[in-house]
Design brief:
Chain lengths: 601, 601
């Protein structure tokens, strides 16, 4: 069975029917591009993903990296994948031509990475971190730092990491302890330990550029005393050649349930005389800078989760289509032919749920990438501002919803396969194990609920929220004019009004009692995510309904659009109604969890 | 950290406060028993579990069984655990004294196994299957079969398996193809292949007794042509000594995501001249007989899921109590001391959810074991009949609810630990991997929804359902007289009435259109399970409230009872309201899944 990584028809739909990617070449930055070039780029990515990433997804899982005390060893296919991806120019793709880049729009780059994620999320991990680290230096580094580090990072000779978490600190960055001592030459010496650093050591590149959060000695407590440093594994000489080993040592590898081909490391900084670090930007503003990389990584996490959900969906769909199993309840004759699994209503339920989670997640992440694009290259200033506001608001949802429901999709894929889903002889159990990291890293789920409700929704007099309301409202208005989807306008209107009410109530309570107001922020995140996804599905349904009205439509397109319509129906009939109990719980400021005493557990 | 397997206070509560286990010695069969003997037995089980099962839970996961082409190799601790358990008499515990047993009540035996499951579900797998296989022979075997096979099975010299599933058939037993050819000597020769046979080969016992479903040549099609056979790995001579190898060959081991220390096998029967099999009972009635073992296994699966949920809860609770992390939203001072994880409302949510899933699941399974007991030893005939009816009705819930929500509990345990939850350096990720089998084996979830709605609810003029209604009603009535829990009476009443309505509507539709009526049976199973658990939590809350009213109660007991009360509050405020959308969906006979066409995926 040759199971596709994603679904070519859906990619076309998302990029060119749902989003307006085809118009990007009208923008100054992209005038040398065209839809054909975008497609050829994606075709290259898909070929690389199939040939160099999918080939060792199971092998990397079964043969995780080892550390011999000196060096880390990865299976050799990992390096081939890294070389193929960087050799095709993808590590530099987002940069301007004069920086050695391809001036590729963000949404095309991220779609390209959806393929590699679907093929092998573990190997892709090294790539997305390196792209993010380079982008961080690009945005906030000094000219000298850019000159020294960016060319080799774009060429794939250096990789990058984000070194935030410490053994005693998980999501609570305010309390990190790694510290930096200023030196006379303007550099710093770093001392401390970082944990769960993905790609913190490997055998892919000649150097690794760690982006490290640390406190300069004497800095204020909390998040306002955190600075950002570039701290390479090997020092880089003036002439760009690789110099001495820096005082950054691999203390050990961690052994994950999934994502096994990405090293997860404990790193010791400054076991001897301190690791040489270069301050990025101004002191004490490191967390602000790092938020760029974190936000980028959050979208990338959502995208990876979406891609894994898609893989599980595709595999379980193939299985369900080809496996004869039992008969329908109405058929009592044991001599009648068995039906395929897909004929059973409950199997269809599990496939439909996966379809809305996988396709919906991918739509959400590509929308986010499109907003990321628009915030800097949309033609008019207001559009740029609205894109930035909406992206900022939605980032917690983009990170969390695909992570939670993509993982759930993979659980359902396992269930469709039954016993076969539970054994390593089939690929789906690995998807679940891989995906399960996504609700944890880049801020555990609860962090994003607090970010959304405690910061994003209320900030700038709810400007971002207002853009969201307008955007949803526009889709509702549009849907009212489309016969096939009109039925969904009122339920989404109701859900949006419910979200408005809940939001108002929570913001009021939070002003006086933040502990109570934020107690159920995770539920708020889920509620907000469901409304967002209902909107995105309705938006897709409008496009599909319009597509169906074209005369002489090929049968395959008709089925595809019908699938989008029916998946929307599923979302509105099965998933959206659960917002009711959530809103009730939030509106009554349920304090059950808050009130639970430790001694009662 | 010395994390307990279960919770001693809760075991006492469940056995002696919620259930009336203390009165069992009043029954004729148990008159030589006492509460002290029960407790000593459980203490023995706990000690064995801690010493011989917990010791190799991680090791067995990391070193799964291997097959060298001749023999299967398990880590040696597995055999030590088997010997300790059988040496203490637990394999024979349920049998009468004159059969070499301990006449131990079912509920005590199953509580004992909750300890071994919590310590090592994979090693426990061999035991519960062997007990089940022996019980099956005991119930339906001929005197000669009992004489030949039961003594060594009770002594732990022979193990047992259930060999139902075939490569081309998962849950659809009607279509199994293994066949049996009658011989002149009254035995049969079996030919066919079985798959996913747990314990199908191992290095623990001198023989393995496979309980095999097969069709006698010429038998009717479907479930009415299935017979049950005893088919040992080695033939057993007249004098009880082990004879020649039977024609049952291990084709290979399967490699599971979890449960790795239990072999999962593909077995070939009759590669040469046929595997010698002994017909149990009458021809073509095999599935009826096997239902005894399946029902027993279904309760055992629920119990195992409950025990794993409990372990995850205990570990994440320890972690949350001891890990400083961040501050409450109301505390803005970065110099203030960090709080422990458990102080955060969202962490309390994840712990409370685990508490209701784990403790609720264990309560449900011990209730089922108590009903199992009562159906044969309750003093009066009506009580025996009511217990049998209720157990039969609830078996799909007992199998499925702990499997689904126990797995969810383990997912939450991982989330509480964050990054640490995802790495094999901590035990919780294994619990999830182990537990994920439980919603699959012994009938995937959908099978139990169809069993509940399609068979159990309607059968015998809804006699079982009526017993359930009466039982729930009695708890509601009782709760109305108890101040601290009165608030829960009305919501449960409402939920029960909702279930009544849904059940009536579905049965009506099913009579004319079984495909539509059963289309959403999995949702019905969840709805039914939630009402059942709401009842069980209210039942616990009544006991706790009464316990709290005792003067001079020790503080530890007060906290324990408060925990039960607050967990009930959580269940009623957070879990029960989700029945609303479920009932709406079922009442409107939602056909979204049924209507989805294969081509639209």
């Amino acid at each position: 069975m040759n199971t596709p990584l994603l679904n070519e028809r859906d990619i076309t739909f998302l990029l060119y029917e749902l989003l307006d990617t085809a118009s990007l070449p009208l923008r100054e930055r992209y005038r040398e591009h065209s839809r054909d070039i975008f497609n050829a780029t994606l075709q290259t990515a898909r070929t690389i993903a199939e040939k160099y990433f999918a080939n060792h997804n199971a092998k990397g899982d079964a043969n995780e990296p080892t550390f011999d005390g000196q060096n880390v060893h990865l299976i050799p296919e990992t390096k081939e994948a890294w070389d193929a991806f960087s050799g095709a120019g993808f590590l530099a793709a987002g940069y301007d031509y004069d920086e050695g880049g391809l001036q590729l729009p963000e949404v095309i780059l991220r779609t390209a990475m959806a393929y590699t994620n679907a093929a092998n999320i573990s190997t892709t991990g090294y790539l997305f971190l390196s792209i993010g680290a380079a982008n961080l230096i690009h945005a906030f580094g000094s000219p000298e730092q850019k000159t020294r580090f960016l060319p080799p990072m774009r060429e794939g000779r250096f990789a990058g990491t984000m070194a935030l978490t410490e053994p005693a600190q998980g999501s609570a960055l305010a309390d990190i302890r790694t510290y930096a001592v200023p030196q006379d030459d303007g550099t710093y010496r770093l001392f401390g330990q970082k944990m769960f650093i993905s790609g913190g050591d490997q055998s892919l590149t000649e150097n690794i550029v760690h982006m490290v959060l640390a406190r300069i000695k004497g800095a204020p407590a909390g998040v306002k005393g955190i600075s950002l440093f570039i701290c390479p594994k090997f020092l880089v000489n003036e002439d760009g050649t690789t110099g001495n080993r820096n005082d950054v040592a691999l203390a050990g590898l961690l052994h994950k349930m999934g994502w096994r081909n990405t090293t997860s490391t404990v790193l010791n900084f400054g076991e001897q005389d301190g690791a040489v670090g270069y301050l990025v930007g101004e002191p004490h503003k490191g967390l602000n800078y790092m938020f760029q990389m974190m936000n980028e990584a959050r979208i990338a996490v959502g995208l990876g989760a979406a891609a894994l959900a898609y893989q599980g969906y595709n595999h379980s769909l193939d299985y369900a289509r080809n496996r004869p199993q039992g008969r329908l309840p109405s058929s009592k004759d044991p001599l009648s032919k068995q039906v395929n699994l897909i004929a059973h209503a409950d199997v269809k339920r599990m496939l439909l749920a996966q379809k809305v989670y996988a396709e919906g997640s991918l739509a959400l992440c590509l929308l986010a990438s499109s907003l990321f694009e628009d915030q800097s290259t949309a033609p008019d200033a207001e559009a740029r501002q609205r894109a930035a506001l909406l992206l900022d608001l939605l980032t917690p949802v983009v990170k969390s919803w695909p992570s939670k429901y993509g993982t759930k999709a993979n659980e359902l894929a396992m269930q469709v396969l039954g016993g076969s889903g539970y054994i390593r002889e089939y690929p789906v159990e690995q998807f679940y194990r891989d995906n399960r990291l996504n609700p944890i890293h880049e801020g555990a789920e609860a962090i994003h609920g607090i970010d959304l409700l405690g910061r994003k929704v209320g900030q700038q007099q709810m400007a971002g929220y207002q853009v969201f309301r307008d955007t949803v409202g526009a889709t509702i208005a549009e849907s009212e004019g489309v016969e096939a989807v009109r039925e969904f306008a009122a339920p989404l209107q109701t859900a949006m009004a419910m979200l408005d009410g809940v939001t108002r109530n929570l913001l009021n309570v939070m002003a006086g009692n933040p502990d109570l107001g934020l107690a159920n922020a995770t539920v708020y995140l889920d509620l907000f995510g469901r409304v967002t996804m209902a909107w995105l599905w309705l938006k897709q349904a409008v496009v599909a309904a319009n597509g169906l009205s074209v005369e002489g439509l090929p049968e395959a397109d008709r089925h595809f659009y019908q699938g989008k319509l029916h998946a929307t129906r599923y979302f509105f009939h099965w998933e959206l109604p659960e917002t009711g109990p959530m809103a009730d719980l939030l509106n009554r400021m349920d304090s059950t969890c808050l009130d639970m005493e430790e001694a009662w557990f």
